[in-house]
Design brief:
- This protein has 546 residues and is of the alpha/beta class.
- 38% of the residues lie in helices and 14% in strands.
- A four-stranded parallel β-sheet has the order 6-5-8-11, sandwiched between helices. The protein has a four-stranded mixed β-sheet with strand order 7-14-13-12.
- Strand 9 and strand 10 form a beta hairpin.
- Helix 6 crosses helix 9 and helix 6 packs across helix 14.
- The longest helix has 29 residues.
């Protein structure tokens, strides 16, 4: 119609029929008239554009079983031969001898499997898929890390209950996909606890020194500074956690006055990214540019976090890409990989020496990061033990567990048996489950109604287990089920305190020297929120000296 003469495009008169009891009245309705010429032209242009787009798509999309590369599907032969299938196997996935994906009927599952072209991959998943297709040509070392909440919900992508697939199955799935090394983000969470716990202890000790200096008459003054008074302090309390990018985004946009209270620690996956890229020579014998580090996260905001300028040095990203739990499930299905047919493999441990544990598995404390209140509970385990030189009498801090909106707990910081710690001092902690509850908690602190020393905030209800990158579920109790798996993993892991992780000991022995050291600050800390990295400050100082 767009190419025809104007006269050929004149709109015709359409009719509607209005029934009135026993007879039908015919009433003409004119769609266009002389007064509405502009609308007519606009409509015709839209119709023409839609026709053009439809025609273009029909030429670019080919069969999902084609061996040619199209704009929406690339057939993969990367994992051909990794999994051996018998002709009588009940597996849902199988590879054709030439490497094209063959889709088999689903067995024992309510989820119907789709052709490869039907998977709507995110840009991050497409980036990874392209790299997997060209792995041999690019020659990069592919490294992955998996967050605590990913191993909990991963099995849901295959119609199973949370936690059915072990962490070892997750590792073998990633290696079947094409990754060379798979690291445990739980270990990075342990590293975060050591640094953030040190930061909290330092602020507590600074406050205690301030109290002693104002002590008169031999009686210690117990006055707690208000929110406004704390702003004038160099090391103000409470200390807020900095793991969640959704929470950091809220602080940057809506509550910049909170920045002095935010921990300078990077999130766990960004810490591990900094370690891997900075020490790539020592760990893998590779240049940082030759290592492609991909995080598998439950959160859709982690990619945006990794894009921050503070995490990119000389054009080298600490984290090259971030995919979600759902992205991973889609990619595995596209490649015909069925996790239930794989043997579990241990996490890799490039940071450890031989006499330590042979795997890179994190601790139970690191696993707790996947649920709301988990960062707080993990931190308390380490802070108490470092300060009092004795184990926490009750390892599980149940006051901060569960899905309540705001949770509180109080922990004495002095042990009578060892005589170590801070006399007459209690650590008051709070957990905000969701940003709405965080706003309520902040308002309460500003009004002087509540006082805390340490506050954890997670943007997603339930914490990372409820992240936007997790599999969608119609189960109303899915968060409770995922949280139960988190706590079960904590109980069953051989080590449950972050500072006892052999990989953490190797981190500090080989590279970082001690908790909160200058090396640790250069690599693992950043000015809140995502300000300049200490590594960049070092470069500026060196250039100024020259």
């Amino acid at each position: 119609c767009f190419l025809r003469s104007r006269s050929a495009c004149e709109p015709k008169t359409s009719h509607i029929y209005k029934k009135q009891k026993y007879k039908t009245e015919r009433r003409p309705i004119t769609l266009f008239n002389k007064k509405n010429e502009t609308m007519k032209r606009f409509t015709l242009i839209v119709i023409a554009l839609c026709s053009f787009i439809n025609a273009a798509l029909s030429f670019t999309v080919s069969s999902p079983y084609s061996t040619k590369t199209t704009t929406r599907h690339r057939s993969s032969t990367l994992c051909t031969g990794i999994i051996k299938h018998d002709s009588s196997s009940n597996s849902r996935y199988r590879h054709h001898p030439q490497g094209s994906l063959v889709n088999l009927p689903a067995v024992a599952s309510d989820t119907a499997e789709k052709g490869a072209s039907d998977y709507k991959l995110t840009p991050e998943a497409k980036e990874l898929e392209e790299l997997l297709q060209n792995k041999q040509k690019c020659g990069k070392l592919l490294v992955a890390q998996t967050a605590p909440a990913v191993r909990v919900a991963f099995s849901e992508m295959y119609g199973e209950e949370p936690g059915v697939f072990s962490p070892g199955i997750l590792v073998s799935s990633l290696k079947a996909l094409g990754f060379d090394i798979v690291l445990d983000t739980n270990t990075a969470a342990d590293l975060t606890i050591c640094e953030e716990g040190t930061e909290l202890l330092h602020r507590l000790l600074v406050r205690e020194e301030g109290r002693k200096s104002t002590n008169k008459g031999g009686e210690q003054e117990q006055h707690l500074p208000t929110f406004d008074e704390s702003l004038s302090l160099q090391e103000p309390l409470p200390l807020f956690t900095s793991c969640c990018p959704g929470w950091m985004n809220m602080v940057a946009k809506s509550n910049p006055e909170l920045m002095p209270f935010i921990s300078s620690c990077k999130s766990p996956h960004m810490m591990l990214g900094a370690m891997v890229k900075h020490y790539s020579h020592e760990l893998f014998g590779r240049e940082p540019n030759d290592v492609y580090f991909n995080s598998v996260m439950p959160c859709v905001r982690k990619r945006g976090e990794s894009d921050q300028a503070a995490f990119i040095h000389d054009g080298v990203r600490d984290i090259d890409n971030v995919i979600t739990t759902k992205d991973l499930g889609d990619l595995l299905k596209m490649h015909g990989i069925n996790p239930s047919e794989l043997e579990p493999l241990p996490y890799d441990s490039p940071f450890q020496v031989e006499e330590h544990r042979p795997d890179g598995l994190g601790t139970g404390a690191g696993q707790l990061f996947g649920a709301t209140g988990g960062v707080m509970e993990a931190a308390v385990r380490t802070v108490y033990e470092v300060l009092t030189e004795s184990q926490l009498p009750r390892l599980e801090l149940k006051e901060v567990r569960g899905l309540e909106g705001i949770k509180e707990a109080t922990i004495p910081l002095f042990n009578k048996d060892t005589g170590k710690g801070l006399v007459d001092t209690e650590l008051k902690v709070a957990v905000a489950n969701g940003l709405g509850n965080a706003k309520k908690l902040i308002a309460s602190m500003k009004e002087g109604k509540t006082h805390y020393d340490f506050v954890e905030v997670m943007a997603c209800p339930g914490g990372c287990i409820g992240g936007g990158g997790q599999p969608k579920s119609t189960d109303k109790n899915i968060l409770d089920k995922r949280m139960e798996v988190i706590y079960k993993l904590d109980k069953t892991l051989p080590i449950r305190r972050s500072h006892e992780n052999p990989s953490i000991k190797a981190f500090y022995d080989k590279f970082l020297e001690s908790y909160g050291s200058e090396n640790a600050h250069r690599l693992l800390h950043v000015k809140p929120v995502y300000g300049e990295n200490p590594l960049e400050d070092d470069k500026k100082n060196r250039s100024e000296e020259k």
